[in-house]
Amino acid sequence: MYFHAVGCGFYANSSGYGENSISLVIFAIMTTVGSTFTTGNPPKIIWSANRSNPIKQNATLQFTSEGDLVLRDVDGKVAWSTNTSGKSVIGMSINLAGNLMLYNSNNSIIWQSFDHPTETWLPRQKLSSGQRLIASASTTNWTAGPFYLSLSNLSNLYAFIEATPPQIYGQVFHGGYVSAFRNGRFFLTSDKSTMRYESETSNFQVYQWVEGVESVVADILTDNRGDCAYPLRCGNYGICSNGQCTCPIGNDGDPNYFRQLDFRQPSLGCVEATQLSCQSPDRHHLLELAHVTYFEFVPILANTDAQSCKEAYLKNCSCKAAVYRHNSSMSMGECSMPSKIYSLMNIQKQAVSYNYVTFIKVQKQSASPPTSSKRKSNLISLTVGAFLAATVVFAFFIFLYVRFKRNVLEDGLEEDGEWENSLVLLADLPKRFSHEDLKSATQNFDVNKRLGGGGFGSVFEGTLFDGTRVAVKRLDRLGQGRKEFLAEVQTMGNIHHIHLVKLLGFCAERLYRLLVYEYMSNGSLDKWIFHRTSEDALEWGIRKKIIINVAKELAYLHEECKSRIIHLDIKSQNMLLDENFNAKLSDFRLAKLMDRDQSQVMTQMTGTRGYLAPEWLSRKITEKADVYSFGVVMLEVVCGRRNLDYSAPEETENLLEILKEKAKTNELVHLVEKCNIDMQNTERKL
Prior knowledge:
Blueprint: E1 5-12, E2 22-29, E3 44-48, E4 60-63, E5 69-72, E6 78-81, E7 89-94, E8 100-104, E9 109-112, E10 120-121, E11 126-128, E12 132-136, E13 144-152, E14 156-161, E15 167-172, E16 185-187, E17 193-197, E18 204-210, E19 213-219, E20 239-241, E21 244-246, E22 258-260, E23 270-272, E24 284-290, E25 292-294, E26 299-304, H1 306-315, E27 321-326, E28 333-336, E29 344-346, E30 355-363, H2 373-393, H3 416-424, E31 431-432, H4 435-441, E32 450-454, E33 457-463, E34 469-475, H5 482-494, E35 503-509, E36 512-518, H6 526-529, H7 540-560, E37 564-566, E38 575-577, E39 583-585, E40 592-594, E41 601-602, E42 620-621, H8 624-639, H9 655-664, H10 679-685
Parallel strand pairs: 20-29, 31-35
Antiparallel strand pairs: 1-2, 2-3, 4-5, 5-6, 7-8, 8-9, 10-17, 11-16, 12-13, 13-14, 14-15, 17-18, 18-19, 20-21, 22-23, 24-30, 25-29, 26-28, 27-28, 27-30, 32-33, 33-34, 34-36, 35-36, 37-40, 38-39, 41-42
Helix pairs in contact: 2-7, 2-8, 7-8
């Protein structure tokens, strides 16, 4: 097939990154029969030189006197080159088949774009051993993605997804649109068809252009495979069944081992509720998923039974799952143990010749001392009561707030060895990330991805390689806060609760100190209770749920953990909300551990002004300090304003003083924010 018009030049992917995402491309212009130019049809990109190294405006393309075609960015750096210097190149041309060529004085081709395929396989273009047809990361991101097509076993053409090792998920068979394998190369049978990898679906599709219109005429990989046999059909750990995506569920019906990345988009996949730790094999548990298999089955053990498959899997922490298949006898089958898990698929027993069962290793939460529901209920009641009693009794109190500024050398710029020694003392560490991993996840800590921050540093939104959205907290001053950093890793790495923000991992590399948390889509509580309009103010039901969520978390920290944990910085900024407005407590950098036989701890004054309990005056602290701070937050939630508001008139700056006066006149209900609140119900609660 020859195109009506083919060109080579700069092209800006305006649907993605605009002027900062320019590529040198070969494009085809689709025209209708009898016309000279296109009308409304944009150029079709069929090849890109610098797809993974985009350039900016004012970049230059030079055909050097040495015979090299060089693309330089605006700063002069080489973005791409044919590397043909000294090979007697005298000219360059492009033909209507879409092939850019450099040739010598004998008219022999020295270099051609057909030997460097991107994601489109053109007629007359041959695919040889060692070459890859690689799909772009997405339709707006032209960099190379994880899917590629390559020759394997000399004469077979397979579809892969990048992993360690790469995983095969489909085969392109001879015949039809792909010719038989000859002379070490594949090429297309039809002279009127173009084959292209689709980045979003990982499908390998055949296109034909008829009178300027491009249309799909075949889907090579989906034939006889169904819609579920694709690596990212339902994201990591997602189970595809008739096109629907779900997360793995325990044998006992417990759905809490995995959760969806985004319940509104199930196809994004699932993540572990508790991250698997190779250091705690005694807490590993196997989920058994009947009639579930994986798109790639590479037997590791043959002529084995299911029990032996499970035992081998449990001994190998690097394997993410075990898939056992057998015929009629459970004692004679094969076991596959992939090192990475993408989408799984639910199969109908009658549709395949094998029986399948998949085992997935999960981490059980650490055991906690049993506590009766009555005790929890009493604690919540006591929390509310203690706050109201405290605010009435303590009409006026003096806050002493001392903030010591530390320079970079206060904790000492410890060498990596000293940090490692400190980390070794901590048990059950969460996952450790490299600084480069987190730099990539946050796009080099882009200021546009900054979620917030404070004296400790800044928090950035990020996306890990597997698609998991995270919040990365970075200490802004190098070398600062070793005690606070270690306290947060130790505390949050060893406790798990539904209303506690999960610490996914950390980075302690050279002088970089970062913490990686689960992403909370609705941000911190203070953004929802202060400065909101009447239209978007939180309903009373949501406010009540938030208060109860935090009370349950405090009950867990104070009463259910092996050592009592005092948070010491309870405030609305440290209470984060997920997509369903469930509240989770965060920021344990100031937390203190208190043994069960201790009645109090001595510590210097820390925390945030406006939330500090009167007992800070004595520096002898108990868990009641958290209870008091929680009471202040509860009052802010109900009233819709800050405890200390210096923008208000002087007589109404302090919410606690207003509370005292309203209590005297039995007018507490007047403090309640009047936005979307059931006043009668609220008055009964107060």
